[in-house]
């Protein structure tokens, strides 16, 4: 599964960005999906996740109320809406797909998000 992230960029604090993750030729029906991020000099950290059917979502405390993870109806795209961005949100954001049948993770290449104060 080749994951492709898009939507990163540079914004000022308080701004918004929307990240997308897709896998051409695949649908995410049987995959749990998540976003992680890695800031310079830091470990990769969990940001948000959504269950295979979209019924449950999970967020790290630092983004609750600001970020929203969602599945698109075509089931081919996962989005992360990021509002009220803060400089601490600056990182490379990665999409992860977990195949629930074989318990295997797939990662995208990452997309850079830079928030200036």
Let me know the average pLDDT: 94
- Main beta sheet strand tally, sense and closure: 7 strands, mixed
**Helix share of residues?**
under 10%
Number of strands: 11
* Tally of helical runs: 0
How much of the sequence is in beta strands? Answer: over 45%
> Which value, in Å, is the CA radius of gyration?
13 Å
Structure, described:
The protein is mainly beta and 117 residues long. It is built from no helices and 11 strands. Strands 2, 4, 5, 6, 9, 10 and 11 form a 7-stranded mixed sheet that branches. Strands 1-3-8-7 form a 4-stranded antiparallel sheet, with no helix packed on it. The termini are far apart. The relative contact order is 0.33.
Supply the key terms:
single chain, 117 residues, mainly beta, seven-stranded mixed beta sheet, four-stranded antiparallel beta sheet
Explain the layout of strands and helices:
Layout (H helix, E strand, L loop, with lengths): L3 E3 L2 E4 L4 E6 L8 E8 L6 E6 L6 E3 L7 E5 L5 E6 L8 E9 L4 E4 L3 E6 L1
Parallel strand pairs: 2-11
Antiparallel strand pairs: 1-3, 3-8, 4-5, 4-9, 5-6, 7-8, 9-10, 9-11
Question: What's this, in brief?
Answer:
The chain has 117 residues and is mainly beta. 0% of the residues lie in helices and 51% in strands.
């Amino acid at each position: 599964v080749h994951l492709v992230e898009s939507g990163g960029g540079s914004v000022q604090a308080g701004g918004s960005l929307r990240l997308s993750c897709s896998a051409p030729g695949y649908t995410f029906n049987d995959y749990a999906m998540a976003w992680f991020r890695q800031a310079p000099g830091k470990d990769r950290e969990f940001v948000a996740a959504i269950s295979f059917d979209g019924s449950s979502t999970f967020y790290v405390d630092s983004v609750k109320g600001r970020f929203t993870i969602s599945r698109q109806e075509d089931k081919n795209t996962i989005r992360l809406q990021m509002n009220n961005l803060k400089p601490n949100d600056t990182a490379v954001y990665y999409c992860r797909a977990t195949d629930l049948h074989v318990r295997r993770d797939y990662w995208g290449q990452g997309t850079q998000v830079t928030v200036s104060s």
